[in-house]
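User: Last request for today: this protein with zinc ion, please.
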Amino acid sequence: MNLKALPGTRDILPSEMGLWRRIEEKGREMFQRWGYREIRTPIFEDTRLFRRGLGETTDIVEKEMYTLEMGKGPSLTLRPEATAPVVRAYLQHNLHKTRPFQKFFYMGPLFRHERPQAHRWRQHSQLGVEAIGSKEAWLDAETIRLAQQFFADLEITGINLRINSLGDEQCRPAMRDQLRKELGGRLDELCKKCRERYDRNVFRILDCKEEGCRSIVDGLTDLTTLLCDDCRRHFDALRGALTAMQIPFEHDARIVRGLDYYCRTVWEIDDPELGGSQNALGGGGRYDPLIVQLGGPDVGGVGFALGADRAIDAILARGGAEDSSEPVLDLFVVVVEASVRDEAYLLVDRLRLQGIRTDVDYEGKSVKAQMRQAHRIGVRWVAVIGPGEISRGVIRLKDMESGREEEIGEQGIPGRLAASTGAKPA
Ligand SMILES: [Zn+2]
Ligand SMILES: [Zn+2]
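Assistant: Here's the final one, the structure of the complex with zinc ion:
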């Protein structure tokens, strides 16, 4: 057999789970501290949700979606992003009518058919928040603080926060016209992709990674000078809030995020330690138009998505270590001979039901090999059970730290383990 995980996908083995859990637990704890509640939406959705929500000419919709035609019924798409599904759920369950302002968080896999390369996966895992029901700039700032502090708590330091404002339907046309005017005479200097973008999605030229395009973009008018009064006030309020919270940031006109649903605030956090072009740890922004586009009220919404895979790469790039692959146990039961195996398995069962993390050999190993296994696991306590112990109604309990042994009744084990200061926390 020569079957392997597909390019752009990967297995996360038990030895790697420690970091994943650290990231997910940190996210869950922080999102709740900031007032967000968890939501889970399906992995696949009606394809029209993404076509309508993200925009027909976006890279994701044009070429990166995993779309399944299943005969009868609507076309399905594995979710390439999570904001449109969360907004869909918010509208479908009439949450906007009962309590219009709602804050959600989510974590889980997303799917994009991109060329696999370092730090880029076709299935990748994101943690994100969506705050729906307000256009207040302080809310944008709150989400940015949350993302920035998430990385700080994970000791991912030296990262860059770059923000921008894309304006809204009032001022965006003037920004688009200005961009077309300045780029129109220089089309032959742009890369092939950007020449297409000029007609279809001119803002995407701003974040082109090609060297030639970058130098042209550097010389363009700062489009935020064209923001209407409302958008300017919003952008000023956001920058004021970030400054007041002492969050370092820079204004970068290249940040456009590539989806039609964004308005006003857009931002990204990148990590120079990751190197190369795939160094964004996450990003977000305001998506008031998306809610309207999906048939909802014009209440406003803002959020972000952070890449869990990239966060792990960022921790490893800073010398962070994977955790041990062995399960964390309180007690390992050593079976002296086959005749007492049934009693040993029943003992293990009873201890587990009492909340003690217990395991036992299932391979018929010798006592010596079982002790070696207990040692390798790093378990503090070993319970030895043989015919002698059974006839006396006791268990021989060995403290692997001190080497001391004692005979103890089964009902005394939970108390004995709890009293030992070295017991690993659950
Ligand atoms: Zn280009
Ligand atoms: Zn505006």
